[in-house]
Amino acid sequence: METKRSTLVVLTPGFAKDEEDSTCIPTQQFFIRAIKKNYPHLNIIILAFQYPYHTNSYEWHGMTVIPFNGLKKRGLQKLWLRKRINAALNRIHGEHRIGGLLSFWYSECALVGKRFASKHGIKHFCWIWGQDAKKMNKYPRKLKPASHELVTLSDFLQDEFERNHGIRPLHIVPAGIESCLYPSLPPERDIDIMGAGSLIPLKQYDIFIGIMSELKKKIPGIKAILIGDGPEKQKLQKLILSHGLEGNISLTRELAHPEVLKQMQRAKIFLHTSSFEGFGIVCIEALHAGAHVISFTRPMKEDIPHWQIAGSKGDMIQKILAILKHPVTEYSRVTPYAIEDSAKKMMKLFGQ
């Protein structure tokens, strides 16, 4: 009698629509590829609840992705969506053998994953990445998760989840970078300051532009690039013009992930003005690209080389000037976390 193959099921709101899609949660893609590389015997199936916007299963780097096109489903449609996802889980468990469920973020995916895992006696972990640790998240109150099934991306999120929900996640698994994606370092860095991310209020790019306005008074030829797209784009474009910074800041569209990494390797400083961040994976990408990072948020309690935490806008400006005006600032790779280590640490929780 043939033994059923052990399967890890990943539950996520969205996933890459094909192997060329580098913009949909790239770190998640690197992480799952790292699991496949280090545990080739393991069958991995990804259930994508909301994105891509179709329901046709497809192969992605030797793994199966089952999308449900569930974005903005409400009421009876949401119940029907959940029923279809549970039917897929039952089918997978019957055909293979689900050895573990990993939910990305404590939301609908965690709800479905926890309930299915409890019913079938399967290990389930939820990886908390950011805003799912906030008090406004209703799912922890609904499910009352156990400490041992919660994994956070950072020390900050472990503390934040406990403060808001009264449960301290037991495990911390920081995300890492995939070093093979980076070309060799360029001979010179011609971008003084870089930012990248969704153009939303949380990221506070109006502060980024305000800082550039102040820096221009000290360094008239200062150059910055801001990469991203989102609802605040028009507002930010107007701010750039009103501050007379059109010659100093290039506001680009969203770029493919390899291109973002290439731009990082040209930058001296990666400026992260976000008011809340689970980790700021883009920051460790910038560190590996050789840039210095300055942010308002501190993800880990331990200091990370070349990553400075600013207490205010003024403090951020002083830290930038100290780096740019120092005659021998070193721009070397710093790699606090590698994606293969992230994969191994997570799979150790599943007994692999």
How is this structure best described in words?
It is a single chain. It is built from eleven helices and 14 strands. With 352 residues, it is an alpha/beta fold. It has two domains: 6-176 and 339-349, 3-Layer(aba) Sandwich (Rossmann fold); 181-325, Rossmann fold. Strands 3-4-2-1-5-6-7-8 form an eight-stranded mixed β-sheet.
CATH topology group of the largest domain: Rossmann fold
Number of helices: 11
- H/E series, N to C? EHEEEHEHEHEHEEHEHEHEHEEHH
Number of domains: 2
CATH class category of the largest domain:
Alpha Beta
Q: Which strand order does the major sheet show?
A: 3-4-2-1-5-6-7-8
Indicate the CATH architecture of the largest domain.
Answer: 3-Layer(aba) Sandwich
- What percentage of residues falls in helices of 4 or more residues? 25-40%
